[in-house]
Amino acid sequence: MTDLAVTAIGLTKRNGERVPVDALHVEVPTGQVVALRRPERRRQDGAARATGLPFGLVNPIIGLTAVVLAATRGVWPGPGTLVQPLVVGLTV
Q1: Which domain holds residue 63?
Q2: What is the gyration radius of the CA atoms in the chain, in angstroms?
Q3: Are residues 56 and 32 in the same domain?
Q4: Neighbour-count burial for 6-37, b at 16+ CB within 10 Å, e otherwise
Q5: Domain count, the chain
Q6: 24: helix, coil or strand?
Q7: Quick one: 33 and 50 in the same domain?
Q8: 0.85 cut: is pTM over it?
């Protein structure tokens, strides 16, 4: 029998009614390295995560807000600054 560094039997993770992990059984022998990763999530920046709105909607809103604030100060951004939030927001 091999020496086990970690033994986990019957682990369950619940999120309200949802059960993403049910009765997980893991044995890790001594000397092995094991990593458990969650599934990849959609990319979200801080504003999208904080508001719960989709990134493709939040990014153009933030870009438009920055342009409007700059215009109120009499500074007009270049064309790249105007187009970037729309292009990034639509391609993500």
Answers
A1: 46-91
A2: 23
A3: no
A4: eeeeeeeeeeeeeeeeeeeeeeeeeeeeeeee
A5: 2
A6: strand
A7: no
A8: no
- pLDDT digit string (tens) for 19-49? 888 888 888 888 888 877 766 665 555 767 7
- Verify that 34 and 50 share a domain, yes or no: no
Q: According to the model, what pLDDT value does residue 43 have?
A: 59
Q: Are residues 30 and 4 in the same domain?
A: yes
Per residue in 1-18, pLDDT (tens digit) is 578 888 889 988 888 888
Same domain, 74 and 51: yes
DSSP 42-78: PP--HHHHHH---HHHHHHHHHHHHHHHHHHTT-PPP
pLDDT band at 82 (very low <50, low <70, confident <90, very high): low
Q: Using CA atoms, how far apart are residues 44 and 27, in angstroms rounded to an integer?
A: 34
Are residue 52 and residue 82 in the same domain, yes or no? yes
Residue with token string 């215009």: 71
What residues have CB less than 8 Å from 23, skipping those under 6 apart?
A: 10, 11, 12
